[in-house]
Amino acid sequence: MADDSKKLWDGRFTEATDAFVEAFTASVTFDHVLAPYDILASIAHATMLEKSGIITSNEFKQMKSGLEEIAAEIEGGDFEWSISLEDVHMNIEQALTVRIGDIGKTLHTGRSRNDQVATDIRLYLRDQIDKISDKIRQLQSGILSLAQDHTETIMPGLTHMQVAQPIVLGHHLMAWFEMIERDYHRLADCRKRVNILPLGAAALAGTSFPIDRQFTAELLGFDGITDNSLDAVSDRDFVIEFTAAASLLMMHLSRWSEELIIWASPQFGYIELPDRFCTGSSIMPQKKNPDVPELVRGKSGRVFGSLISLLTVMKGQPLAYNRDNQEDKEPVFDTVTTVLACLTAFADLIPAIIPRKDNMRNAALKGYATATDLADYLVRKGLAFRDAHEVVGKLVSQGIDCGKDLSELSLQALQSGSSLIESDVFKVLTLEGSVNARNHPGGTAPGQVANAIQAARARITESTVNG
Ligand code: ARG
To answer: What architecture is the 114-151+173-197+227-361 domain classified under in CATH?
Structure first.
């Protein structure tokens, strides 16, 4: 970082800023991430200033080419950021003045850093939401390709972490699909509120120059302009909303992680994770640790933490802009980085997991997973559900005593529970019979799961095409 003790705002000051205060108040160490968006917004602002007759076309041309040169310098890593110039905005403005002389000083006409920074974050976030949304679609298509291969792979469905009823693996994977489908739409909805232009609010009250906000909005691809200048510079709802949506997304990824970790454990053995996603132990040679899902589960904490930070940054602020708002940057940047990294890892990992079909099937066989099917069978034969539940409970207890699954009990043994039981009972006691019976939209019958996969594929292709 270069040092430059002349401030852009020190006209009324009689002593230099305290060195500690300078470092304490500076944000350039992290907000330099906004540079491309700051330059984009400055060029749009200058274009509007020229169109509105506030600057000349010669001034505009020089500003535009100066800003483009600075953008290239920053992108090439050759730009020297200065802490004493506080933030990304003043670093770039000062660099422009150094480059094109006094004309650079007129760029700030009709705007303030307050509406400038609000604009930059909105542009940044819009871009990041689009990147995250693409990653979600990529991950969803990985889920679909794995689910497609497992519409008939039986596994136990669990409640309370205990075998409940048989399901097919494809059905479980499609539950994951649905979770992030909601995340996708939450982000799309949040994007609508992000994509509004605050520029023109200036410091807080608007500007006395004849600006054309609608024109700037169009140049920057915003859907509209903010309606109140005080709210425009102070509002960070959209940042909180984004982080809330990101928190839900991370909560989902964390839950999948938990399942992957359990499934991959030697005790369960439902799946194998590819070696390239695991690490070994430096002491225990037998270990193959599920590090990637463990880290994804762990990283959810940072995003939830960011959400709480942001809510707290805002909760005590009177209108309009206060410096507290500078504290919005690091949590939101970290959220974006974390979410993108976790989605990238999962988009690669999920389609590569290797199901161990025999282990899943055996686990379903061992857990009296078809007990509900037997109760439903008795209901179809005329028994009330509560009574059927009681009968089957007793038969399960018999099975536990002799170490047999319901399907392994003799007809005679089953009939000791109820004389309504006949030889056709064995059809409903098989795992296939059980999943096939749940044959309605949203159910686990293989045909229904195949339909769900097809419908989901159509949904994501459509939204990818239509934006
Ligand atoms: N770095 C500041 C931020 O991130 C920019 C706005 C500063 N405005 C001010 N009046 N000090 O919020």
So the answer is: Up-down Bundle (1.20)
Euclidean distance between CA atoms 171 and 56, whole angstroms: 64
Ligand 1, atom 2: closest residue by C-alpha: 326
Which residue has its alpha carbon closest to ligand 1 atom 11?
323
In the chain, where are the structural domains located? 10-109, 114-151+173-197+227-361, 368-465
Q: Which of 141, 281, 418, 434 is catalytic?
A: 281
Catalytic residue among 52, 160, 234, 463: 160
- Can you tell me the distance from the alpha carbon of 224 to that of 371, in angstroms, rounded to the nearest whole number? 58
DSSP letter for 156, please. Answer: E
Q: CATH for 368-465, among 1.20.1640.10, 1.10.40.30, 2.120.10.30, 1.20.1250.20?
A: 1.10.40.30
The residues lining ligand 1, judged by C-beta closer than 6 Å to any ligand atom, are 27, 31, 87, 113-114, 117, 321, 323, 325-326
For the chain, first and last CA: distance in Å? Answer: 41
Parallel, antiparallel, or unpaired for β 224-225 and 354-355? unpaired
CATH 3.40.50.720 fits 10-109, yes or no: no
Helix (H, G, I), strand (E, B) or coil at 164: strand
**Does residue 234 carry a catalytic annotation?**
no
In what helix (H) or strand (E) does residue 167 lie, and over which residues does it extend?
Answer: strand 162-168
Of 91, 326, 327, 333, the residue with max ligand 1 atoms within 8 A of its CB, to mutate for a pocket test, comes to 326
Per-residue pLDDT of the chain (467 residues; tens, 9 = 90+): 554 567 888 888 888 889 999 999 999 999 999 999 999 999 999 999 999 999 999 999 999 999 999 999 999 999 999 999 999 999 999 999 999 999 999 999 999 999 999 999 999 999 999 999 999 999 999 999 999 999 999 999 999 999 999 999 999 999 999 999 999 999 999 999 999 999 999 999 999 999 999 999 999 999 999 999 999 999 999 999 999 999 999 999 999 999 999 999 999 999 999 999 888 878 788 888 999 999 999 999 999 999 999 999 999 999 999 999 999 999 999 999 999 999 999 999 999 999 999 999 999 988 899 999 999 999 999 999 999 999 999 999 999 999 999 999 999 999 999 999 999 999 999 999 999 999 999 999 999 999 999 999 999 998 766 55
Nearest CA to ligand 1 atom 3: 326
Q: Quick check: is 171 catalytic?
A: no
